[in-house]
Design goal:
The complex is a heterodimer of chains A (139) and B (163).
Chain A (H helix, E strand, L loop, with lengths): L16 E3 L3 H11 L12 H6 L6 H16 L3 E9 L10 E13 L2 E11 L9 E7 L2
Antiparallel strand pairs in A: 1-3, 2-5, 3-4, 4-5
Chain B lengths: L8 H4 L9 E4 L2 H11 L9 H6 L14 E2 L27 E10 L8 E16 L3 E13 L5 E11 L1
Antiparallel strand pairs in B: 1-2, 1-4, 3-6, 4-5, 5-6
The chains are: A alpha+beta (139), B mainly beta (163).
């Protein structure tokens, strides 16, 4: 069901999204997104060796935050703004929990808007990728 | 580890200089490839009939997907797929880079069938001290995406951290 402006309130949580990308998933992301930095698929690459592992693309996490918001909206609205900062590296095969909360909802210039706070938490519960979004609801 | 980074007048002169445009294609195949890479299960990003049922012209671009830069050997970056020539080079001599983050602002929808011209400029330079890496040069780049109708559909700002 497409989300409507009346169906949520400030403080509501977005349904969580779990991700546990292995190297095959990261290869699919590299192909779809165009980032073939070996740091994301080649364990023999010097920077991977220095870090002890390949790491998940920051952009994979950014896109996954987009998926979290897209799933919540269910095409009842559109994303106006989406941002995140990479504060910590995430490793493949580790579970990440993506979540968010409605910080504010308001109407302005005939538009129905909501501001979201977003995060990606690693298996230890650390927020590696804080983010935010502004969405515009259709109805 | 650099103790101090100076933003020279030569570096400052690069700020605000817009690159020539480079085409990005949005196709049903490229949207599916991106959606599959992220792990979407929502059929709207895979099945055109579903997308049209939900009011889209064709498969919509998933959030953060700005189309696939047209790849031309010798003109494109073999690792990151974007154009090699993106305006004047910023000369700073720093070897290591980390992705700091990104912000995308959308002004209209992007769907399969669109061709988008991307231009990019360095919009800001700053220096920050980090406990782990010493001095860091923070380069903010602003990308502008204009569709085949001449409409700016999105802007994206991203930060590269050089040290």
């Amino acid at each position: 069901m497409p989300l409507t402006f009346d169906a949520f309130k400030e403080g509501d949580a977005l349904p969580e999204l779990k991700k546990q990308p292995g190297v095959t998933q990261l290869v699919k992301y590299a192909a779809g997104g165009g980032d073939f930095n070996p740091l994301h698929h080649d364990y023999a690459f010097p920077q991977s060796k220095a870090l002890g592992s390949i790491i998940v693309h920051g952009r994979f996490k950014y896109a996954a935050l987009g998926e979290l918001v897209s799933n919540w909206l269910d095409h009842g609205g559109r994303i106006r703004k989406l941002s995140c900062q990479y504060r910590g590296m995430d490793l493949p095969d580790q579970e990440m929990t993506l979540g968010g909360v409605v910080k504010r909802k308001w109407q302005e210039g005939g538009e129905k808007l909501a501001e979201l706070e977003l995060w990606v938490k690693n298996a230890k519960g650390k927020n590696t990728t804080p983010g935010s979004a502004v969405v515009v609801l259709r109805g | 580890m650099a103790e101090k980074i100076e933003i020279t007048p030569e570096m400052q002169a690069v700020v605000g200089v817009e690159s020539p445009p480079w085409p990005h294609e949005v196709t049903t195949t490229s949207v599916r490839a991106f959606a599959r890479g992220v792990g979407y299960t929502d059929p709207v990003y895979f099945d055109e009939a579903e997308a049209k049922k939900r009011g889209y012209r064709s498969l919509p671009a998933p959030p953060t997907y700005m189309g696939t830069p047209v790849f031309i050997p010798g003109k494109s970056n073999d690792t990151f797929s974007g154009p090699l020539q993106t305006g004047p080079r910023l000369k700073h001599g720093l070897k290591n880079v980390l992705d700091g983050g990104a912000e995308t602002e959308y002004f209209d929808d992007i769907c399969a069938g669109d061709t988008i011209q991307m231009t990019v400029k360095v919009s800001d330079l700053a220096v920050r001290q980090s406990k782990t890496t010493g001095a860091m040069l923070i380069v903010t780049q602003e990308y502008t995406y204009t569709n085949q109708h001449g409409k700016v559909v999105a802007k994206q700002r991203s930060q590269g951290l050089f040290y």
